[in-house]
Specification:
This protein has 12 helices and 6 strands. It has 333 residues and is an alpha+beta fold. It has a 4-stranded mixed beta sheet. A two-stranded antiparallel sheet has the order 5-6. The chain binds zinc ion. Zinc ion (ZN) binds next to strand 6.
Amino acid sequence: MPWFSGIPKINNKIIAPNERWDKIYNSINSIFPKQTAPRGMRSEIKPYLDSVTENRDILIQYDSKVLANELISVLRPGRTTTLLLADENQINDIQREYGGLINGPYVNIELKEKGPDTKKYPVLRLLSKRNYDTALEILGSLKSPYAFNVIVKNLIVKVELAAFCKGGDRRARWRLDNIHPEFAEENGCYGVAAKLLYYILDILKADLKRKNIENYTSSIDQAKKICMKEFNEKEIQFVNNIYPKCSCPMCLNEISLIDFFRNGRNDPYSIVFGHYEYRGARSGDVHIGKNSFWIHRLCNSIQGIYTIEETIQILKDLILNHSKRIIDWELRG
Ligand SMILES: [Zn+2]
């Protein structure tokens, strides 16, 4: 049975898989069929990734598991920090100055200064904003069930990390000391995973609807029902009648499926795990389903340690103050 299925080097081998998670995992993982991609397809696609934008029309013809995987790896920051640069001349200048290596859509740069605590020179990748945007756009346009299978698998991993693991070293939260800020009861983790996936299933459904793909609605509804088994009665009412479907609860703008693949280090509209009540508050356990949602990274940083309502009040007060007192920053010196 899958357990932290896609997470490499997970440190939880001694923890037995739990049926509650298996049921949810299997219901979602089986919505779309797997594909045995033709041999050599990856090496066929690879050269076109040198410029995702210029080769867009060729790439979209490979609507498959392989293309979805390749695009996701272009978008994901991975271990190496990726900088998105809007100005491609700037990328060329930096490449020349640092002797950077061109590697697909990236330019790899080895920095000239190393930190005091490391022997290696840090490497970072430069990616043009243009290629980033096109990769997102192509990923969002894919229609094959095989591409959806890959997308969903990646989203399950995102949920597993958020719900079950401490950030960084990826230990299960309930294995941490209970004074640790990321400690959570195992029970709460299932509630969080179910809630986060439930929201993703709504977003997935909206994406398929937009693309006029209708064959998967009943398996998605079935998976939603399995997630709902982890909800209490009030939570069911809340997700059905009150929560703004497919939206960020702070800015109330729509969250689309590809937003989950935005670069978390660069893109303020990437999607992160959000809390209604701040987890650092430690007023009881906050790592529970009813406290969990998806939120833009930008909105999450605006929210800080407050609840959504508190933040809105803070922002209202702030705007009111600025309407009374205008600072002319042009005169700052
Ligand atoms: Zn937002």
